[in-house]
Amino acid sequence: MADIFTNSQVHGHSMIQSIKQVVLFCLVIGALSAAAQDYSNRAIKITDKADELIRSRSFGEAVEMLKKAIDIDPSYPQPYLKLTTIYNLYQKKDSAAKYYNGALSVIPESRISQKMWANAARMNYATGNYQEGLNAANRLTAPDSLLNLSLQFAVQSITNGVELEQELLPEEINAFGMQYFPVLTVDESKIIYTKRDSNTPGSDEDIMISTRIGGSWIPSQSISQSINTPFNEGACTISADGRTLIFTACEGRKSVGSCDLYITYRNGNTWSSPQNLGETVNSKHWDSQPALSADGRTLYFSSNRPGGQGKRDLWVSKLSDEGWSEPINLGKPVNTALDETTPFIHVNGQSLFFSSDGHYGLGGLDLFVSQKGSPWSQPLNLGHPINTRNDEISLFINALGDFGYYAAENGAGRQSSSTKLIKFRMPSDSLLKSKASYVTGRVLDSETKQPIGASFNMINLVNENDSYTVNADSITGKYFLVLTEGNQYGVFIQRRNYLFEDLNFTTTENSILSPDTIDIYLTPIRSGATVALENIYFNVDSYNLNAKSKSELEELVSFIKNNPSLKFLIEGHTDNTGSDEYNIELSEKRALTVYQYLVDQGVHTSKLAYKGFGSTRPVASNNSDESRIKNRRINITVID
Asked: How distant, in Å, are the alpha carbons of 148, 232, 383, 397 from that of 436?
């Protein structure tokens, strides 16, 4: 995958720098370790001549002479070692490792020091020669534990890896010299990414967007003139509904630190003027690479601010009525003493993908996934072929977890001349703990059929701490709700001066999730307006409330208190199972139970009444279990 690091959005990172000094030091040891023996005088003389060329910085000529010396006497170690030095100076890691391995192959093993074996392990690891690196590490009496684990994992991962099925995104998207940091809306109808025309220092970064219409992507365009400027904007994230965008800017705007995070909102087709997230979120240091949860209310990002575990760490901030919270370091085991970057939180809200060079891997920055918890789970390396010896960053995975997106380089290292966006099929279902899908549609006035805005509060009825709050677009009425498998959700939709609406969704474990479209009609509040409470549950043949009803009842209390001029009738209804007398009695007791709960929560009795109707007012036939479920309900009706 990609070795992509832009000047403004991502700090530079190079494994070769971390071993260069060790390499040069070990070369001296290597030269001293090779005991005098019979070598070709001609090879020695040519090597000495190459030394003179090196001192005069004529490296190109020196390389040719050293290769010639090896041709004359392949057993002479000095030209191998000097070539290793030159190639390391030019950061040509593959050639450096090749000649260092050559030197070790001709030096008697008894004269190879522990430092030389350690150096060989690091160099071969950095160049993807994992088996050679592991062989060297196995000769160490006290190997580097992380390096040794990485080499073992890399050998196994390469052996068990499968070919990555991938395709280049069309030229309507890959229209520039460089494009990277892709993110998509939950329906994968819009892709947003950072582009640069070239890798030259003055090339401007902008945020671009392309929309898929009828299966085809339209040509990318600037996301908004209010977002893109003559300065650099990039490394963005977007909420699942495509209406909240946070991006990184490092110059040209009012800022707190070297790179800051900015937020903007879309209403209709218009993006608001970006606002700095302020000193609560941003620091005087480097804050970048944001990742929003599906509802846009939890923000993950990378920062090198003090108080972390290492160099760059992952942090999290949450949005409440009071604004964004003080960021909290994710801590161990996610963060390490080295770098954690480019977070991506899947729409399931549980799976956090990120890049790190502080965990075991195949080299450079590898991609990992950790599951949300207290603490987060031990990060899992995504393995080969997703990870390689290069730096893998900025992964995006769709809701179902079957496809991913990333940027692939065309060139060598961070000076790559171009990068292209790639779509690939995820090689393993086990990388994503819970798949997700979505429900979309419009909110409409039930009388005029015109789109209106509304607020959605979706609560996991199994885990009330798992909630999801979004707003429908006030111009188009469009909304998106993300559903994760294995959960039951209650959705409460409301707008001022309208009666609320209720929805319920159940997604079973390992079920095949498919997107759904549901238009929601809100009724203006007036006498006679009624709505079924879809998320009120009673035990079988009982008027005792099930614990799953709590969230719905709390929403109902809030709604009634926010409409003090109205009076409501709590209606109990049953199916036709049982006698009429029994059903009337059961429905009355269930209505009374809800009534009493509301009163206990502070709703005045003058605002409420209750009545049981038994099976006399069905909304569906009683010919199936599904229809009988619809008839067993609690309604709330506006009365005079």
From this structure: 37, 34, 23, 11
Which pTM value belongs to this model? Answer: 0.88
Q: Give the pair of three-digit tokens for residue 201.
A: 């220092």
Where are any strands of DSSP class E within 357-435?
A: 366-371, 380-381, 396-397, 403-410, 418-425
- Phi and psi (nearest 5°) for 625? -60, -40
* pLDDT at 519 exceeding the cut of 90: yes
The mean pLDDT value of the chain amounts to 90
Q: Does pLDDT of 577 surpass 50?
A: yes
Can you say whether the dihedral through the CA atoms of 93, 94, 99, 103 is positive or negative?
Answer: positive
> Is residue 535 a contact partner of residue 549, using CB atoms and an 8 Å limit?
yes
At residue 154, φ and ψ (nearest 5 deg) are -65, -45
Alpha carbon separation from 124 to 33, 97, 388 (Å, rounded): 21, 6, 13
State the Cα–Cα distance between residues 210 and 507, nearest whole angstrom.
Answer: 31
Radius of gyration in angstroms for the set of CA atoms belonging to the chain, rounded to a whole number: 32
264: which strand partners?
Answer: 245
pLDDT of residue 4: 40
How many Cβ atoms are within 10 Å of 449's Cβ, its own excluded? 10
Q: Are strands 516-517 and 436-445 parallel, antiparallel or unpaired?
A: parallel
State the average pLDDT over residues 111-136. Answer: 96
Buried b (16+ CB within 10 A) or exposed e, 371-385: bbeeebbebbbbbbb
Distance CA 376, CA 308 (A): 16
Separation of alpha carbons 516 and 502, rounded Å: 16
For residues 96 and 197, which has the higher predicted lDDT (pLDDT)?
96
- What is the longest distance spanned by two Cα atoms in the chain? 114
How far is it, in rounded angstroms, from Cα 310 to Cα 327? 16
Could you give the residue ranges of the DSSP H alpha helices within 415-572?
Answer: 550-561
Per-position b or e across 573-605, b if 16+ CB within 10 A of its CB: bbbbeeeeeebbbbbbbbbbbbbebbeeeebee
| 3-class SS of residue 223 | coil
Q: Does residue 432 contact residue 426 with C-beta atoms inside 8 Å? A: yes
DSSP per-residue letters across 550-595: HHHHHHHHHHHHT-TT-EEEEEEE--SSS-HHHHHHHHHHHHHHHH
Q: What's at 504, amino acid-wise?
A: N
Element (H, E) at 521: strand 520-524
- Order the strands of the 351-356 sheet from edge to edge: 340-345, 351-356, 366-371, 380-381
Residue 462 tokens read as: 């199994």
With b for 16 or more beta-carbon neighbours within 10 A and e for fewer, the 259-278 pattern comes to bbbbbbbbeeeebeebebbe
Could you give the CA distance from residue 260 to residue 250 in angstroms, rounded to a whole number? 6
